Each structure stands twice: as C-alpha cells, then as structure tokens.
Input
Amino acid sequence: MISIKGLSFSWPKQKAILKINELEIKKGESIFLQGPSGSGKSTLLSLLAGINQPSSGTIKILNTNLSELSAGKRDKFRAEHIGYVFQMFNLLPYLSVIENVTLACEFSKKRKVKALQKSKTVIDEAKRLLDHLEIPEHLFDQSILNLSIGQQQRVASARALIGSPELLIADEPTSALDQASREAFIKLLFKECKSAGTTLLFVSHDETLKPLFERYVCLKTLNEAC
Amino acid sequence: MNMFTLAQKSLLNRKSTVLLTLLTIAVSVMLLLGVERIRTQAKASFANTISGTDLIVGARTGSTNLLLYSVFRIGHATHNVSWQSYENIKKHRAVKWAIPLSLGDSHKGFPVLGTTADYFKHYQFGKKQHLTFAQGHAFEKQFDIVLGAAIAKKLGYRLNDEIVVSHGAGNTSFHHHDEHPFTVVGILKPTGTPLDKTLHLPLSAIDTIHNTGHHAHHSHEHDSDLIGEPKQITAFLLGLKSRIAVLTLQRSINTDAKLTKNEALLAIIPGLTLRQLWEMLSMVEQVLLVISGFVVVSGLLGMLTSLLTSLNQRRRELAILRSLGARPWQIAMLLVSESVLLTATGCIIGIGLLYAVQLATAAQLQELSGLQLSLTWLTQHEMLLIAGVLLSGLLVGLIPAWRAYKYSLSDGMSIRV
Output
C-alpha cells in the first residue's frame, strides 16, 4: 500500500527534518503512527498527500511513485485514492452535512463511480455512511454549525470514506474529543475502514490510543533526522 | 457542484459583508449609467433646442453669446438691432420668413419674449417639431400673453388669468409695469427647451410697457390691434427659401455695410454654433464620465477589500478543498467566480436602482433642468459600459484569486489561521 524507501526531506538550504530509511504499510492495515510535535508528522503527511516532494528517496502509494507525477496529477491522485481527516474544523461552513460529504466525489470521478456501486445516488451513499457513523438523520440537511465536535469529526470521516479510497489519513482526529468519545470514534472508524477495505493511517501524539491498533509505529524512532 | 455553485454558497454564507459589497457595486453602477444617461440626453436635448431656423441675427458680439441670449435666455445683449436693419434684411430675396425677438423683461424671474404671431408658426425645435398649444391660441391682441408649459405649471396660471410684467430681468425688479396686466390666451405644450420657461407677448406690447404714463392710456384705445413698431429689437430669426443661400446671406449680413446700413450685425447658423458651444462644454462632459468611472473603480476596490479580508479567514477552507484534491487553479477559479458573481449581481441591482430612481425623480428633474429622461431600455453604449464593469470585476477578482493560489501552494494542507 505505502512503501517508503530512503526518504529525506528538507526545506531549501536547511538541514533535513525528515529521514526515513524504510516504512512498509500493507493493504487493509490500521496503523497508529505516534509522535510528539516536532517529530516530523505534518511533513510526512504532506509528502504522503503529495503536497510536497521528497528531497530524495521514494514514496510509493499503490505502486505509484508520487515523485514521478506532476503537481496536477498528484492532486488528482489524492482526490481518487486518499481520504483525509484533520484535527478539527474539517467541514465547509457554508455547506450542509450531506453536501460536505458528497463534496469529495466532486473532485474525483473514480470515487463517484465507486460510491454509485454501493448506493443508487451519491447522496444515498453519503446518508448510508453518515448513518453508519451514527449521525442522526435529522442533522443531514442542517448546517454543520449545529453539530458537536465529535459529530463534525464523524462527518469528516464519512467524507474521507465516501467512494472507498484505498487510504485514509487521519491527522490527530480525536485530539478535540474527550476520552469516552475518542474510543467510540476510533472503533467506528475501524469498522467502516474494514467494510470499505480502506487502509487507515492514524496519526496522533496520544500514546494512550496505542492498544486499540493492530500496528504501532513511533515516528521519533523511525525518523533519523529527529 | 462545480466551483461556481461553491462560490455561490460561500457568498450566501457571508450575507452581511456580501450585501454591503453588492450595494457598493450597485450604487456605483447606477451612478455610472445615470451620469451617462443624463450626459447623452442632455447632449441630445441641447442640440434639439432650436431647429428649422437658418440664421440668427443680432448685434455684433460673440457667436456663442448671441446663441446663449437669443435661444437659451442666458445673459443679455449688450447692443440691440435697429428695426430698420431688420426690415432691410427681411426684404432680402433669399428670406422666406423673419421673426423679431425682444428680450430683457421678466415675470417672477422668468424671461419675457416679445415677438410676432409668426413665431408660433415658424419656430421649430427637436426634430423639426412645431410649437403646439396645450390650451388656447397665439396672441391676437396687444395685451394677450402666451405661456411656456413650465411656467403655467409652476406658477399655476390658467387661461384668462391676468399677469403683470416687470421691466428688466430678474426676480427683484423694483419697477413693475402695473399698468399693463396681460391676459393669458395660450399655454404651449412642453418642449424640453428654455422655451418652456418663457412668457411670449406681442412685440408691440413690449415697447408700450416701457413707455409708462401717457402711453398707457393711449394703448388701451388700440386694445385690439397689434400695430406698432419698436425702434429696436434684440435679435431676429431667419428662415430662408433655400438652404443653399445660408452661407451667402450670412456673409452679407456680417460684412455688407449696404445691407445693414453700417450697423454692426452678426449672423450665426444655429446648428453650427450649438455644436461649438457643446464642444466647449465637452470638458465638463469628460469630467463627468471620468468621475463616474472612478465611482465604479471605488466600488470594485470595496469588493477587493472585502474579498481579500475574508480570504485570510478562509485559508482553512482552502486547505480543506486542497485535501479533497482541488487543484490550486480550481481554488483560484473559486475566487474569480465569487467576484464575477458579485459584480454581475451588483450590475443587475444597479440597473434596477437606476430605473427606480429615474421613475421616482423624472418629474423633479424635468422641472429643475428641463431635461426629459426617457425610460428606454439599455442602449448599446450602456450595454458596453456594463460589459466593461463586468470585465473589470473579473480582472479585480484575479487579485484575490492569485493570492488564494499562492496560499494553497504554500499552505498545502497544513492549516494556518
């Protein structure tokens, strides 16, 4: 799924902030990538998402070498194969809950087609996912401002999952949630990733979440520049 | 949902600032179109003040000055024309008709014109339109008076009302010709020219009212005739049998001492002098255009300000779109779409406002300036102006678009607020 070899990244004229010799992630795994701030988390994520380019080494996702793609192709690759959940404020304030979820299909035909394989319409698929993620139906057409933070994160997950992308990257998605809803959220995420066959890369500094995951990677030890 | 609908929803989400921006653009578009409308229609109505008259003759002065006092009732003649010269020129074989004009008196600030009944027959304005009566008829007796449309309306005069005319122009004339009340026998239809503000009375009466006292008694005895020749008149209008003779006769009047009995006279071709006068005013015209152009620019700058201010708060939104796979150029498109939407909506509201204001103020505008703005659909020229505004809106939109493009490249998906 993800294959990183001899990767290093530095901003122009600065020393490397990220050096990873090797990291392999298999399809369908759920990985907990743990690291305190400053361990190169956001740099690694921007490289995986194809926003930035490694200074040396290769990142392959689904056997595609991201460095070989143009900037536009990398944007398209991200739209088609990667779902992304931020720490918080994931949703566009001027769109309804449903519109926020279906937005992901606007930038990728492939994900739209995949969504339509599961439900009659993209909207139906969004409703199905929202339902699975335990968003009450009466909120579907409402403004996202009426949602709690936990609900917002679940809507963001529905958006990241619609059209079954191969990889879901969640960047500290639970840091704004309390302990109880944290575990509930992660369990829901697991369930949906499993049923969609999506690989989950879960990034957080919070070590207490470690026991929930199949595999644990400590970025601080992995990153030789740290 | 493409970038355009996204832009629409994003704008709707920022209602209060968007409304203010829309209002700024709408008002500036309304002003631009309004000024343009007034400018073009003023030009048209200016050129339409007099037509069908081949030459205007007065004492030697500047040609615009002669036009101003004889047609626009602005300023006054420094010298008069002798009745003798008028008679001589009238007899010229090229002349079809001649109308004497005697100015200098006023009634409640409105100019009084002494002339003959021929005036109502030959005077033309606009596209060779003759004067027509809304009520009554031309003067027939010495103390008959015919009113312009605006005066009758403003001062509330009706047929058979009696009016006193004072000597000298201006509202505060001390010397009133109380001895000679005139009777309103006719009210003209509106022409949209200074004629609407003029009181017309027989030439013979003008001379009589200036000779107060014993002449007053005298004139009442001749109440029913219009005989009597003044020694002097202010100017006269000429209609020729053939337009070919215009230049020749103009030269003769201006130079031929025999024809004018050594009196220094000036003949002007009204259309030509009108054009010269308008060219003098074209500076004002240009300034007006430039000002309304700047009004639009300031409207668009207002839009730019609000877009740029909001952009900083929207960097998160851009990052979300980037994470979903939006390309930087799509994000730039979002911003351009927003400014195009704002400008287009602003234009539509502005056009609506223009018609609303025009409807609401048509009456006052006509009364104040004699300008009749017709409620026509947008002219091609106005369409071009609107297209220009839209294009400028699009160009202005490129600035926040460029900034958003840079943000989305530099921020990527990391959110900086």
